[in-house]
Amino acid sequence: MNKIRVRLADWQQDNADIRRIREAVFVAEQQVPPELEWDADDQSAVHFLALEGDYPIGTARLLADGTIGRVSVLKDWRGLKVGDTLMQAVIAEAQRRGLTPQRLSAQVHATSFYERLGFHVVSEEFLEAGIPHVDMVRD
């Protein structure tokens, strides 16, 4: 496996890759309705792509209020620290922009992943797109 790198993505130029990853993870695997996956925040968000070589394998977005979302890694690359590398890049960019605290809504099964990155749970469990979530914050 090549070294994983993360770069800032352009919503217009990188749209096909961002959509391919999010549709594979959220729409196809997790059955999130497409109308819930795509929203107006995508236009103004800072997007990220994780790449193996030149092939995009993960994505995430950062909103102007410090909210991190749509963190997704293609199935074949999970368990290889791609998510860690991706999130470290998003957190670093948020800090560079002075966006503290960082917030996210995590799928409950992923809370320990985010806790390793310094996030802590700040809400009760709730359903989002039919999937159990909790809100998390990193100060």
UniProtKB/TrEMBL annotation:
<dbReference type="InterPro" id="IPR016181">
    <property type="entry name" value="Acyl_CoA_acyltransferase"/>
</dbReference>
<dbReference type="InterPro" id="IPR050832">
    <property type="entry name" value="Bact_Acetyltransf"/>
</dbReference>
<dbReference type="InterPro" id="IPR000182">
    <property type="entry name" value="GNAT_dom"/>
</dbReference>
<keyword id="KW-0808">Transferase</keyword>
<keyword id="KW-0012">Acyltransferase</keyword>
<dbReference type="GO" id="GO:0016747">
    <property type="term" value="F:acyltransferase activity, transferring groups other than amino-acyl groups"/>
</dbReference>
<protein>
    <submittedName>
        <fullName>GNAT family acetyltransferase</fullName>
    </submittedName>
</protein>
<feature type="domain" description="N-acetyltransferase">
    <location>
        <begin position="4"/>
        <end position="139"/>
    </location>
</feature>
<dbReference type="Pfam" id="PF13673">
    <property type="entry name" value="Acetyltransf_10"/>
</dbReference>
